[in-house]
């Protein structure tokens, strides 16, 4: 059984409140879970101590049993000192898609052509004055 430590959403519309839970990876986000480890309230200020509450002993227990935290929960556990969390680096994520790259190339070609056209009369005028 593949275990995940993840967030389970609660709260009303536009007022999110999350529980940090250990669940089977096959269960839905807000579905059945094995154990509740803590809470996360994103509406509170970032420096508020009640924003993230996690039972570190139980979280450590589940990490030793092989539970994999999600990216957000891994960040929380990293601040709690239970694991090393490093910001993921995906250099391809920031690149535009094929169509956007093609449009950018076309724009650059048009700009070069316009620049050459603007410089061409100036060069001709310079040649005429030199004669």
Automatic annotation (TrEMBL):
<dbReference type="GO" id="GO:0005737">
    <property type="term" value="C:cytoplasm"/>
</dbReference>
<protein>
    <recommendedName>
        <fullName>Small ribosomal subunit protein bS16</fullName>
    </recommendedName>
</protein>
<comment type="similarity">
    <text>Belongs to the bacterial ribosomal protein bS16 family.</text>
</comment>
<dbReference type="InterPro" id="IPR000307">
    <property type="entry name" value="Ribosomal_bS16"/>
</dbReference>
<dbReference type="Pfam" id="PF00886">
    <property type="entry name" value="Ribosomal_S16"/>
</dbReference>
<dbReference type="GO" id="GO:0003735">
    <property type="term" value="F:structural constituent of ribosome"/>
</dbReference>
<keyword id="KW-0689">Ribosomal protein</keyword>
<dbReference type="GO" id="GO:0015935">
    <property type="term" value="C:small ribosomal subunit"/>
</dbReference>
<keyword id="KW-0687">Ribonucleoprotein</keyword>
<dbReference type="InterPro" id="IPR023803">
    <property type="entry name" value="Ribosomal_bS16_dom_sf"/>
</dbReference>
<feature type="region of interest" description="Disordered">
    <location>
        <begin position="83"/>
        <end position="131"/>
    </location>
</feature>
<dbReference type="GO" id="GO:0006412">
    <property type="term" value="P:translation"/>
</dbReference>
<feature type="compositionally biased region" description="Basic and acidic residues">
    <location>
        <begin position="99"/>
        <end position="115"/>
    </location>
</feature>
